[in-house]
Amino acid sequence: MKDRVMETMQRFSKALLGAVAVMPVAAILMGVGYWIDPTGWGANSIVAAVLIKAGSAVLDNLGWLFAIALAFGLAKDSNGAAALSGFLGFATVKVLINAGSVAGYKGIDVGALEGDAAIAWASQGWNAIGDGNVFVGIFVGILAAWVYNRFHATRLPDFLAFFSGRRLVPILTSLFCIVLAGILFLVWPLLYSLLFKFGTGVSDMGPLGSGLFGFFNRLLIPTGLHHALNQIFYFNVVGINDLGYFLGGGETIATAAAATDAASCPGLWTAAGTCEVVGVIGRFQAGYFPVMMFGLPGAALAMALRADDKRKKMVWSLMVAGALASFFTGVTEPLEFAFMFVAPLLYLVHALLTGLSMAIAAAFHWTAGYGFSAGFVDMLLSARNPIANQWWMLLVMGVFYFAIYFGLFYFLIGKLNLKTPGRGDEDTEAADAGATLADASDMSAVAAQIITGLGGADNIDTIDYCATRLRVSTKEYTKVKEAQIKKAGVAGVIRPSQKTVQVVIGPQVQFVYDEVERQLKTPAVKKD
Questions:
Q1: Is the pLDDT of residue 397 over 80?
Q2: Rounded CA gap, 461 and 465, in Å?
């Protein structure tokens, strides 16, 4: 049972990334647009206007993207009929329970509402049901995928044969989404209220809330549940939309200038009756930059210097590759998984320092944002965003964070004799292999070694990948040899359950997966 749950979570995580992976496109387009026209936000340059509007096309339709990506990614064979079903399903739910439709069902003239009546209507959250509602997109995507997997091979009587099989799926999805819309009509106000109270409760804590968000986000990384936490704060589920509002830049500032109350303010509604967004929007993102660009590379240097002499070459290769990925792109898993399980105390320190960084940045109103992760590329792109505020101070803070991470990691590893990569009783054969993924030019050798470590092709039940990891279900867990897998130079190996294995690769995961898949389909491999 546990293995099935883990397999389902792995597939869900990968499918979710299908939508998340589109967001860097929005960040790049809008970032370049703001660089071209940092004051007019498109008013002074048609090129900047086109780029900013093109980026907005992604951000304004995240609900559609999540519905389609999840439906497609969770379908057994990732067929286009599932994606079409996700599209139709989201359209159905959105039309049936948006604010105008619900007001019509209840006979409410929203424009005539005043005082407590207007507040009561707003508290039900119907205005959140729209193109950008990620939560509804997730619900619809999961439902559409289930319909596809359950009914894509269904045969109808001959007179209806044209609508059999995959053609039946979009039809049934539309019908099921009518039911889903009915359920949401009943439960959405309660669900919205709970999410709203949680999100605003954390937001109202100010810098402390930002710190708690960063701390728990890091702690949830091993489980993948940080994605659920991010939905509430990064997207327009309950009005926080920290990521969307930041990338919106000029549009967000214009919305704030026109705001007349807290409900219409995209940022912080002050006692003076003004809406503040500069220095406020981005508070759930900015504190990551000092950690990812500077802190974790400092930790990598400490782990490399603390490695045993005979293993230093291997560890240096691993750490340098991980540090560069973390600095430039904000991809931290190759480094985090290097010490997450072998030295959990260090990971707790890392989570605490992340929370502290988030709190400090929020307290001083230093803000920057990202479309992918908090690396140099996103920092550069967000620097000219009009909503960014004193972003350079995050770089100054990063220098201190490099020293803090290096000092604490170097001291704790030596003082407590922590078994970080290349230290202690780590498997000598694996450690001395020296073929790290960073310098592996022959991807076929890497893939072959991973297959061997997983117990051979016959022991692999299913294999998939997410942003940085291979996710594998095995038939016999006793045949899996972690030391053999590590010979491939991977960042780490995780065993969430008996039959589930996660091989932490890093940004090159897709190419490793493609080669593993190719070899698994080769008769010579299957005979081994």
A1: yes
A2: 14
Tell me the per-residue pLDDT of 266-315, one tens digit each, with 9 for 90 and over.
888 888 888 999 999 999 999 999 999 999 999 999 999 998 888 788 78
Amino acid identity for residue 178 in this structure: I
DSSP letter for 389, please: B
Pairing type for strands 492-494 and 469-474 reads unpaired
| Interatomic CA distance for residues 395 and 67, integer angstroms | 37
Number of residues written out for the chain: 528
Distance in angstroms (rounded) separating the CA atoms of residues 299 and 486: 21
Least confident stretch, 28-32, 73-77, 249-253, 342-346: 28-32
Residue 298 to residue 399: CA distance in whole angstroms: 10
Is 466 designated active site? yes
Q: How many CA atoms lie within 13 A of 289 on its CB side?
A: 31
**DSSP assignment of 53-71, as one string?**
HHHHHHHTTHHHHHHHHHH
Q: In whole angstroms, give the CA distance from residue 318 to residue 90.
A: 43
Q: Are strands 460-465 and 275-276 parallel, antiparallel or unpaired?
A: unpaired
Structure tokens at 63: 């609900």
* DSSP output for 468-497: SEEEEEES-GGG--HHHHHTTT-SEEE-SS
Measured at the CA of 352, the angle between CA 346 and CA 355, to 5 degrees, comes to: 145
Least reliable range by pLDDT among 21-30, 77-86, 378-387? 21-30
Three-point CA angle 99, 102, 103, nearest 5°: 80
Contact 451, 519 (CB under 8 A): yes
pLDDT one-digit tens code per residue, 78-96: 888 999 999 999 999 999 9
Alpha-carbon distance 107 to 291, whole Å? 52
Q: Give 353's contacts (C-beta < 8 A, 6+ positions apart).
A: 291, 295, 401, 404, 405, 408
Distances (CA, A) of 469 to 122, 217, 334, 464, 511: 42, 18, 9, 9, 11
Instruction: State how beta strands 268-269 and 492-494 pair.
Output: unpaired
Contact 340, 334 (CB under 8 A): no
Give the predicted TM-score (pTM) of the model.
Answer: 0.66
Are 189 and 125 spatial neighbours (Cβ–Cβ below 8 Å)? yes
Per DSSP, 166 falls in state: G
Catalytic residue among 177, 265, 275, 466: 466
Confidence of residue 431 (pLDDT cuts 50, 70, 90): very low
Q: How far, in Å, CA of 334 to CA of 319, rounded?
A: 9
Q: How many Cβ atoms from other residues are within 10 Å of residue 522's Cβ?
A: 11
Sign of CA dihedral 184, 186, 192, 195: negative
Alpha carbon of residue 502 to chain centroid: 17
* 329 three-class SS: helix
Nearest to 73 by CA among 150, 139, 151, 142: 142
